[in-house]
Amino acid sequence: MTTQMTAQASTHEPAAGMWAFVNQLPGVQFFKNLSIGTKLTIGFGILVVIALLVATFSYLGSVPATENIRRTDQLRVPTALTSGRAQANLLKMISSAQGYLALGGQEFRDAYSRDEQAFQDELAQLERLSPNFSQENRENLDQLKAKFADWSKLPPVLFELRDDQFEREPAYQLLTTKGSETGGAVLIGVQSLIETQAQTSTNSIDTLKDMANFQGSFASMLSGLRGYVTTRNRIFRQEYEVNLTLNQNHWQDLTAKKARLTANQQATLEQIDQARQEFLTLPDQIFKELESDQWRKDLYLFRTEALPLAADMENLLGELTANQQTALQLEAKSGNAALERANQQTLTGGIIALLLGVGLAYVFRRNIAGPIRRLTAVAEQIRGGDLEARAQIESADEIGTLAATFNNMTGQLRRTLFQVRKEKKRADDLLNVVIPIGVELASEKNFNRLLENMLLEAKKFCQADAGIVYLKDGDRLKFVIVRNDTLNIAMGGTANKEITFSRLPMVIPVYDDETTPGAEHQSIAAHAAADGEILNVTDAYLPEILNAYGPGIFDEKTDYRSISYLTIPLKNSQNQVLGVLQLINAQDPDNGQIVPFDPNLQQMMASYSSLAVAALEAYIREQSLKQEIQQLRIEIDEVKRQKQVSEIVDTDFFQDLQAKARAIRSRRSGTPAADNPPAADEPKS
Predict the structure, then answer these.
(1) What's the whole-model pTM score?
(2) What is the pLDDT of residues 499-558, one digit of tens each?
(3) How many CB atoms lie within 10 A of CB 13?
(4) What are 83-125's pLDDT values in tens digits?
(5) From the CB of residue 659, how many other CB atoms can be counted at a distance below 10 Å?
(6) Which run of H or of E encompasses 505?
(7) pLDDT (0 to 100) of residue 216
(8) Taking a C-beta distance cutoff of 8 angstroms, is the pair 126, 288 a contact?
(9) CATH number of the 446-613 domain
(10) The domain 73-165+303-329: what is its CATH number?
(11) What is the C-alpha to C-alpha distance for residues 329 and 322, in angstroms, rounded to an integer?
């Protein structure tokens, strides 16, 4: 050991020489004699100042970047995302409106309602963000809200037109009104001619044929016109035009035979001609409507008013999104530059702090770590068995004080070691006595002690902080043994301390006010005793448990917090509850935290309780026997007292005393002694 230390000293000789030179510098010895707390305060104070300077420069450099990041996170990104979602919802609104106008499906109208509500939500979000917008963006948002207000008025009108073909299509309206009226008049008139012609005696097949041909061509012409109106298919227009030519020819053939008709028929023919002329003025109007861009009012309104508004809203949203993206790029660039400056400042400050830290570390190593290391080396020598080793006192600080104390401790250790060896021999001798005592406990006849041992074993087995054994005494539970490690309570059993807790009532009244009794609670132990069932309560301070059982009397009296309970009724072979074994606050063996009792332990303790029942029965018998013996002693003492009184009263001496007492009373009362009979409690001779 000595050789090794010498080698180490020669290895560090240059460093030691340099440090000896440093020790000669002014103020070094003063610094060495300062307390360690002062040294550490100076050193850490310097480090704290440096750290504050570095943190200040870093903070000042990162403020712009932080502000840009905050603005990006709270404004730019939410605005861009909200604008993008609003654009998507706007396109969905347009698509849903077009789908309904084109196909009329209810699902498109429902989809439009959802998209419109989503678009309104996005506008509301943009409105909430608008206080931080630029003037241009706020103006765009105001225009967007105005455009949307105009847009919102159009879809109900469009949908109403889509649902009413008569209103949405002027050509269809013309055909179903005037067209149906005049065309129907022509067909009805021709049918009347045919019927009257068939009834005349001068029936002409050629005339009927002309009437039928005219009727058929007119009906085909009307059908083609109706098909063109409903489908806008030019095939139906061609069909109309072909039948129009045929109808014109058949009309000429029919009017050529006008002279053959009766006067009524000729009048009818005049009406047909008038209706036909009115009808023929309609197709040109219908074709003009059908072939114009307003053939459907809903589509025309959607195209001319709704779509321009939608395009304007989309452009406004696009500008808003583009502005935010541009601002985001500029702020990101500015933030990167600020972060780069902050990083440079932090790096510079860190290098300075590192250099100062290294210097301080060297100083503290020489003034604190060095002496501690050498003191540790001395401790290693002592651990190796060299109790003669002594520490060098190098300074007047705490380490020097510790070295002096260490030397004193070494001396004390030498003295203590001798004492320990002597005490070990005493402990070995004591062990030879304890083992026979442990064997003797197997035949324990003190049932109070036996109950205590069982409670302690149960506490140990269940890692419980506290345990109580109750004895059922009428309508109350009597505390027999109480143990609480936290409160250091040991009452009953072998403890020389009487139990100060009153008997526990089976039912505890709860007063609504100072005089009126309200509901009644049973304590957990009383509940187990009354029902004869094991209670495993995880947390007695949960509201439902607290309301059911009320606050624990033990907790109220001791300021203890009983959380988990394992309460076992002790029942004899006749299933009668004799008492209760209660364990409180199971503890986690790893961290000591209070945990619920394991249900598996509950089953094992239920079996274990049968032993406690036997001990409790024996305890009850023992207590009963003691009471009987005490009562017998009282009766014997009473008999002895009466016998002693009788023996005293029957003596001549006592009789003389009574006579003298009567004489004294007679003198005081002025009556002869013969007139004073013995008192009622005086024995008669």
Answers:
(1) 0.40
(2) 888 888 877 655 545 444 444 556 888 888 888 889 899 888 888 777 777 666 667 777
(3) 10
(4) 888 888 888 888 888 888 878 888 988 998 898 899 889 889 8
(5) 12
(6) strand 504-505
(7) 92
(8) no
(9) 3.30.450.40
(10) 1.20.120.1730
(11) 11
pLDDT surpasses 50 at 436: no
Please name the residue ranges forming H helices in 104-233: 106-129, 135-163, 165-168, 170-174, 180-199, 205-231
Q: Which of 108, 218, 103, 208 is nearest to 155 (CA)?
A: 108
Mean pLDDT, the chain, integer: 77
218-256 confidence digits (pLDDT tens)? 999 999 999 988 888 889 999 999 999 999 999 998 898
Eight-state DSSP code of residue 674: G
pLDDT for position 16: 53
Of 525, 139, 585, the C-alpha closest to 319 is 139
Token duo for residue 71:
């603005």
Asked whether the beta carbons of 375 and 395 are under 8 A apart, the reply is: no
Write the DSSP assignment of 634-666 as a string of letters: HHHHHHHHHHHHHHHHTSHHHHHHHHHHHHHHH
SS3 for 533-566 is: CCEEECCCCCHHHHHHHCCCHHHHHHCCCCCCEE
- For residue 236, the SS3 value is helix
Instruction: Enter the tokens of residue 623.
Output: 């207590």
Query: In the block, which residue shows the tokens 């702020």?
Result: 331
Q: What is the fold of 170-295?
A: de novo design (two linked rop proteins) (1.20.1440)
- Domain assignments of the chain as residue spans, ordered by start: 73-165+303-329, 170-295, 446-613
Give residues with Cβ within 8 angstroms of 239, minimum separation 6. Answer: 220, 223, 224, 227, 228
Q: Which of 68, 57, 65 minimizes the C-alpha distance to 338?
A: 65
Given this model, what pLDDT does residue 671 score?
A: 57
